[in-house]
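Help! Submission page says 'invalid entity' but I think these are all valid:
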Amino acid sequence: MARIVQCVPNFSEGRNKEVIEKIVDEVRKVEGTKLLDYAPDKDHNRCVVTFIGSPESVVEAAFNLCKRASELIDLSKHEGEHPRMGATDVIPLIPISEVTMDECIEKSKELGKRIGEELNISVFLYEKSASASHRTNLAKIRKGQFEGMNEKMKEDEWKPDFGPDTLNMTAGATAVGSRMPLVAYNVNLDTDNLEIADKIAKSIRGISGGLRYCKALGMEIKERGIVQISMNMVDYTKTPLFRVFDMIEREANRYGVNVIGSEIVGLIPTAALINCADYYLKLEDFSENQLLEKRIYE
Amino acid sequence: MARIVQCVPNFSEGRNKEVIEKIVDEVRKVEGTKLLDYAPDKDHNRCVVTFIGSPESVVEAAFNLCKRASELIDLSKHEGEHPRMGATDVIPLIPISEVTMDECIEKSKELGKRIGEELNISVFLYEKSASASHRTNLAKIRKGQFEGMNEKMKEDEWKPDFGPDTLNMTAGATAVGSRMPLVAYNVNLDTDNLEIADKIAKSIRGISGGLRYCKALGMEIKERGIVQISMNMVDYTKTPLFRVFDMIEREANRYGVNVIGSEIVGLIPTAALINCADYYLKLEDFSENQLLEKRIYE
């Protein structure tokens, strides 16, 4: 467990395999990074790349990917269902292990500056890196898309953070920013009553008054004859898994229903589970430095 | 989290700093290993070294350490309070991450064979590597110590597994074997009544009928005015931490006492805590491959 940042750039090509491979290769080439996944989508004409590495190597790989995409993609000719504003549309940096959010924000600014200055691409900092609160949300930044971006950037409040004030007419604009890792987490109930799952989801999710960094929906799992609270935990350091688990259990009991299990979908930072063990075992003064595996990468 | 084995060799020099450094240097020199700690003890005239690394590099470093110790330590002149039979007295190999016990046993035999053949030192396989049940326990193998070992090895049941049947009169004999990592784990109660801690310790420990791989004692923590169940968990995969925690909580409640916290003393394998999160969250089909940090070292 060295210092690890995750990066999930989205670029605007989901059909031409040759172009996709050339762009993804830029990540493979950088030492210290590990390509985990890339998922081209033909309808969206877009590709989502997932890789991890040291903060320095991640910035290097993300820059190279962005450069290559700007050489190979002409956004003025791009068609696809997904909203987009750039050849590389968005580059999130995510702290995973032994890296603080502040360090990630710093790295995102360094990356944005390089993209702006060296590639002549307008860059918007977003999420935790945003330079103003109205620029936090990616959808708001991207509104108007590539076609409307040149006009939009003339407004003071949409002046880019780095790069030119007039749009690069082939590479467009790119959003760069830091955000927390997202944990997809589901809790299963021993009932097929969707209404109960909906009520519980409503009571625990941040938007309707529940736990701030939890998004939740009730879902039917027809093949098992049960329902589920399906969640996205958008900041496990502030809304931990054990807290939603316990709250769902309590709410379920109110309806005479039991929690029969839960699921982590996809990847999860180790710390998000260690803090559950810490909570339930009531650990005193536990430090992640006590994890044996950490010691080898010091 | 690559493939990691921990190794905790004990060699019979705890006073001469120059000799100690030369022996420990053999671990430092091997690429792929990380020296975590070494603790010379003057009264015992003995030094305990802790290091981790890939299975291959750990065997290499342990062999080199053993070789160097056999060159620098003359056991016929050794005095110390701790029982000992060799210049390198014992070499435990401990599976930590992505290494099975069987693989560790294999490596311990490979290491023992090299020590026997190349260094002309009698080797006893012990613990999980033992070639017979009466040779599992280190204290039993070492009984009679260096001074009595030559006679002892004439008996059929104490013939060494590798190396000469007559004792190396300067380097002695070495025990090599695989064992599980030991987790030192304490649970604190909101009472100063030692009798209650003793009763709970007795009910949960393997030797008196409790959980098989748990050793436990009641202890007073005078400065906090509380008592504690102080434990050694000798196989967390078979007797997990959450099971002793829950059992202690239940037993404590029987006396009207509460668990106020618990402590991990020193290092712990990540898996020993992940399996607690898995239990309390009732995770379905969780795999350690879902831990993001694991992916970078694949």
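Support: the input was valid. A stray whitespace character was the problem, and the output above is from the cleaned input. The interface with chain A takes residues 1-2, 4, 6, 34, 36, 52-53, 96-97, 181, 188, 241-242, 245, 259-264, 266-270, 273-274, 276-278, 280-286, 290-293, 295-296, 298 of chain B (CB under 8 Å).
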